[in-house]
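user: can you give me the structure for this one chain? tokens are fine.
assistant: on it. calling the predictor now.
[tool input]
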Amino acid sequence: MPPPGRRIRLLLVLCGLGFAIVLGRAVQMQIIDGDMYAERASGQHRVEIVTRAPRGAILDRDGYRLALTEQARTIGATPSLVTDPAAVVAAVAEASGESPDVIMDRLTGGGEGIAHVDLARQVPPAKAKRVQALGLKGLDFAVEERRVYPSAIAAPMIGVVDLDGAGLAGLELQYDEVLRGVDGIEVRTEDPAGNAISVLTQREMRRGASLTTGIDREIQRAAESITDATRGEFRALAVTAIVLEPASGEVLAMASSPGPPNGDFRLAEDADAVRLRGITDVYEPGSTFKAVTIGAGLATGRIRPNTPVDVGWRWDLYDATLRDSHPNPGRKTATDALRESSNIGIAKLAYEHLSGPGGKDVVLAQWIDRFGFGEPTGIDLPGEVGGIVTPYREWSGTTPLNIPIGHGIATTPLQIAQLYATIANDGVAIRPHVVTRIEGRGPVRAERERVMPARAARQLAQMLEGVVSDTGTGAAAEIPGYSVAGKTGTTKKLDEDGTYSKRRYLSWFVGFAPVENPRVVTLVMVDEPEGELFYGGDVAGPAFSKLTERALIAMGVQRDRPDS
């Protein structure tokens, strides 16, 4: 048994420890947490009030709203207070457009003990008001916002937001941070009656900025109508159309068929309907790429419009054989070869003047890079890819024959449209862009770069004008009263075994008008047309003609060849 003195000391230590604990708790309650307990004692409480920033609108080039935000209602329910579930389900289903089964699942799917459920969101105020007027027990109505797209055009470009207003696709995603602004937040204390006592912290709400685009509603509608009609006429897998303004780089229209039902992104049943094939998919460009080959030759002085080339019925080189789709053997000029889209003529010109003996000269490869192939254009839309370009060091014996005529390389339709926009713009490339102005920040300035000499670009434009003539492959792309320069393209698609198909084609036409003062560049690409017609001039040429004429008229461009 410990001596009495030791027991006394132990008792004093324990008493001191207990006193310290009590003192510490008192200090915490009175000093550290004093405000909290004082609030509780007086009935005060802290609240956080969030003021949602209105999302900015998306406008076309004339200021018409393509996307805007308006008020809506969330219809909620407290299941335990609902006395007539059948009536609630019927009323909410009618107002929201959703099926009664879905509404019933939301009402009853949480099981017992669920305090509150949202039965329907984004309900138009007028429809929600009719439900509210029924006086059904257990329902409540909260104000929220919903995004609407009144024009029902350009859905894949404009994009869509989720139920909470966050961008999911298109410009809505690309510019989400700009469009959504900054929510306002106020943290304050209130008395039991909800009266503000003091503001603790505050952040001002900043509304989202609106975007002005270069989209022309009339041209966009024409693009969507013509791509749909062309796909139907040729029973094609898909059709893509792009219209650019070469002097500014602005996208006037971009359409893909099939598109979303009724132009509503939210009604699309699969990704195909909202995919912007013009920037997300790559294809062999075929003869449209011959402009790169001739452009490289003109820019370097190695090829002139009258440079001669011998074209035979076939050309055998490196165990490969080239033939022309429309054989016309004889001694040609470079202009002839481009006008007739001679594979043999263009490949020989490249081999003799750009690739050098054995195809070892890097000139063509350098100009492919200079024209921007292998890299995205930088358009302000999500999902753009850069295409597929074989690095020069990996070129094989037949590569110098294939690349000059657009085989063995993959590009997006936008990259080809950008190539022709550069030619139309006297050799200056401008980054294609959809948004032209951001509210509060001013105009968007797109990057510019001189790619080829102006003289070479004008020579190439004149050569391409010959394609759209009675003796060229693009006669069907002619537009009454307007001069047109452009190029056809026809490519066999690859089958699953890696060989070129004998029945699946890509049909292209791309060009610009008027030739002397180009106002629009238009591209049409038809994926897998069915039937006897599959050449680019026959399939894509007429669609190009219709769309380009509609665009020129919409822009008020006078006919420069009124007698043609």
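assistant: here you go. The first helix runs from residue 4 to 32. The first strand starts at residue 45 and ends at 51.
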